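Aim 2, interim progress: modelling of the iron/sulfur cluster-bound target.
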Amino acid sequence: MQARYPSAIKASNTPFDPVDIALITERIVCKKGSRKYTDFYCTGVYGGISTAYAVGCNLRCVFCWVNWGRDYPHNTGQLYSSQDVFNTLVHNAQKKKIKKLRISGGEPTLCFDHLKAVLDLVNKTDYLFILETNGVMLGRNPGWVEELKNYSNIHIRVSIKAGHEMGFERRTGARGDCHILPFRAVEFLVESGISFHVAAMTDPRLMSKEENLTMHEKLKYAGYSDYLEEEQCDPYPTAIARLKKAGYTLWKE
Ligand code: SF4
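Predicted structure of the complex, ligand included:
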């Protein structure tokens, strides 16, 4: 019998392998070099950025704010070729006179060939592409980091979700031993010389002081001692619903 595709996790979740879920998700959201997206828009983060909102992720973070396409990718979004994505990103950026582009809403490293095809096009321009990633697939595939070295105008933001196995399992739904993959991505990125920084969901309502210290030690071990962007959990309706399902109450009802 085929396993059900994992949606938002409960407190009693059975941990999944995030690399397996990446491959399963790719089969749903990627077809012949195209990927599913739900929207294209500009927003004020990073001082203004043109955004393609992709469908599909390989984690199930309880604090995640993205739309329900993360959980139900079969029924969400439309396929866009890399050329369509690039054209729309640039068209929207030109209208707002901004110089940064990104893929958000899902994990951009899923459908890696599609991402590279977008980056090939961006590389011929003077736009900066911000690659926001949970680091799982980059940690699993050091060769991918090597390939990203070919792009001169990218900056990578690796988002760490937990400092230890238990925190990772409880807050992302994925197998605890895989918590090390984003730290390995950081290690590979340090070695590569690619422009990047680390963000982390260190909201004290979710991550204890002890786990936070462990996370800092692991970042140090990975060779990273630069700026850490500390994230707080915001009360988006999707985040509230996911937290509630997983047994967290962060805000009064
Ligand atoms: S927070 Fe990011 S990595 Fe986590 S489930 Fe949402 S999109 Fe995926």
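The longest strand covers residues 34-43. Residues 46 and 195 are 15 Å apart (CA to CA).
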